[in-house]
Amino acid sequence: MIEFQNVSKIYRGGKVAVEEINLSFEQGEFICFIGTSGSGKTTSMRMINRMTEPSKGKILIDGQDIQKLNAVELRRKIGYVIQSIGLMPHMTIRENITLVQKLLKVDQAKRDQTAEKMIDLVELPREMLDRYPSELSGGQQQRIGVVRALAADQDIILMDEPFGALDPITRDSLQDLVKDLQERLGKTIVFVTHDMDEALKLANRIAIMSEGRVVQFDTPENILKNPANTFVEDLIGEDRLLQARPDKTMVGEVMLNTAITITTEKSIQEALRLMRAKRVDTLLVTDNQNILKGFVDIESINKNRGLTGSVGDILQTEVFFVKENSLLRNTLQRILKRGLKYVPVVDEQKRVVGIITRASLVDIVYDVVFGEEETITDAVESFNTDEVKEG
Ligand code: ADP
Ligand code: MG
Question: How would CATH label the architecture of 251-390?
Fold first, then answer.
């Protein structure tokens, strides 16, 4: 719907503000431009409604080169919101909400309809339409400010750090509101921010800018999983990366390759010797293809006093295992919850490829899930607490 083709902006004096950007937004998307100050976010956004003209390349809206459209008409079709969402003090709420429509010469009946629809959307009483901004609380005024931006029949809305000056709580609730309204009204929003939390919360896709270039353009999820470079990593921040990291870690990456196994046809005597030699009290049992069949432990051997027969005779087949290509995040809690000392790791054919021990798990939990701040004891304790809650 909105397409940047090799767009550059060089200001008079030679400042390269935007360099060779190629982006394409779909209708109904919430797009955030994010980046440090001076990275070209505002310039990129303002080129969409020709408040700023590109020096090179072109921008298409619905397949049309906007350079060939009348700039004034183009601008009327695109809403634009800047930082302060101040309402006009001498206009009623109704007049404020429908200001753009009035400028566009929409008739009164239609404007009244819009005003009512909008005030319903923000769940304020319709009587409020004929009051003045000063009669409303600050929070109510801000909600009106947001719907005013969405009230005109414009499919595309540009917002340049609209919530930048607000306190965190107000910002949070206005973000919820704008996202909800954007989805319900099917608007396409291009939103500039320097706040990664805001971008991650609002955007369907985020364009990350640095020194006039787009360094990454992707969904919040993919950006968290695969930051394009260290600049993006820094922007995301270590905390969020730590949260995202367990998503990627697979069991196979953290397992030990030292599973001690024995095959079913071996004698119990041999099993006992192996346990002594390796100083373990449990052995994984496999068939000759190394496929996991179960386990034997010292207790079941002790019960079987004669010590004759084979491993297969005393095999315990109920064994909890995990696959090497499963996500650690999805298995970690189950492993810890069962209070197992170790868990065999298998491949797709259920062949034993490794083992995860409780001891190694504590290190993993420490590194991956909790980062460096908490102690190991804290980490284990919080898992135990989870267990109690869920149990
Ligand atoms: P952002 O919104 O990411 O902070 P801008 O798009 O406003 O960045 O600016 C990008 C770069 O272009 C900055 O270095 C800025 O100083 C420069 N710039 C912006 N507007 C002008 C202008 N009218 N004339 C000259 N340079 C400008
Ligand atoms: Mg800016």
Answer: Roll (3.10)
Amino acid at 22: N
Q: Distance of CA 91 to CAs 96, 153, 249, 340, Å?
A: 6, 20, 57, 69
2-244 under CATH 3.40.50.300, yes or no: yes
Q: What does the domain layout of the chain look like in residue ranges? A: 2-244, 251-390
Task: Note the pLDDT tens digit of each residue in 242-267.
Answer: 565 545 678 888 788 888 999 999 99
Sign of CA dihedral 379, 380, 381, 383: positive
Task: Report yes or no on whether pTM surpasses 0.85.
Answer: no
From the list 207, 199, 205, 187, the residue with the least C-alpha distance to 41 is 207
Ligand 2 (single-atom ion) residues, CB below 5 Å: 42
81 C-beta neighbours (distance < 10 Å), count: 20
φ/ψ of 212, rounded to 5, equals 85, -5
Residues with CB under 6 A from ligand 1: 11, 15, 17, 35, 37-43
What is the secondary structure of 173-226 as a DSSP string? HHHHHHHHHHHHHT-EEEEEES-HHHHHHH-SEEEEEETTEEEEEE-HHHHHHS
Nearest atom (ligand 1) to Cα of 212: 10
Nearest CA to ligand 1 atom 7: 42
Sole residue written with tokens 């009035």 = 102
Distance CA 176, CA 183 (A): 11
